[in-house]
Design goal:
Elements: E1 3-9, E2 18-23, E3 26-33, E4 36-41, E5 59-61, E6 64-66, E7 73-75, E8 81-83, E9 87-88, E10 91-92, H1 98-102, E11 112-113, E12 115-118, E13 121-126
Antiparallel strand pairs: 1-13, 2-3, 3-4, 4-11, 5-6, 6-7, 7-8, 9-10, 12-13
């Protein structure tokens, strides 16, 4: 079982906005959707680069986080991969470039983290 760490107050997280933070030495991303908070590791499973920053900027909407490096897209709630290496830096590239950008690494889901909200405080369980 992991360690439960406070990520602050629910009221401090804006609804529909993705934020990156460090919790107990673990880099995570958090997204508030209504009264729910979802968390995942702040590393794209493609090359381990941060999802919270890069040449494409922080991109999040409708529960989907996009890697700012190679445009892979993931559901924040489940970690399910929707698109894998479709471009670079937030820009779409021709389909023939996908094998180049993926470097032969197959599509992988984003590791998610368990969260809970108690008395207005958000907790994330990290390993």
């Amino acid at each position: 079982m992991g360690t439960e760490i406070s990520a602050g107050q629910l009221s401090e997280l804006r609804d529909g906005i993705l934020v990156g933070m460090e919790l107990g030495g673990h880099k995570v991303i958090l997204a508030r959707e209504g009264e729910d908070v979802f968390a995942a590791v702040d590393k794209c499973p493609h090359m381990g680069l941060a999802l919270s920053g890069g040449p494409g900027g922080l991109q999040y909407g409708d529960g989907i986080v996009q890697c700012p490096w190679h445009n892979s897209r993931f559901e924040i709630k489940t970690g399910h991969v929707l698109d894998w290496c479709t471009g670079f830096g937030g820009k779409k590239t021709p389909t023939w470039t996908k094998p180049v950008f993926s470097l032969g690494i197959g599509a992988k889901d984003l590791p998610t983290l368990e969260t809970r909200v108690e008395n207005g405080e958000v907790f994330v369980i990290v390993d």
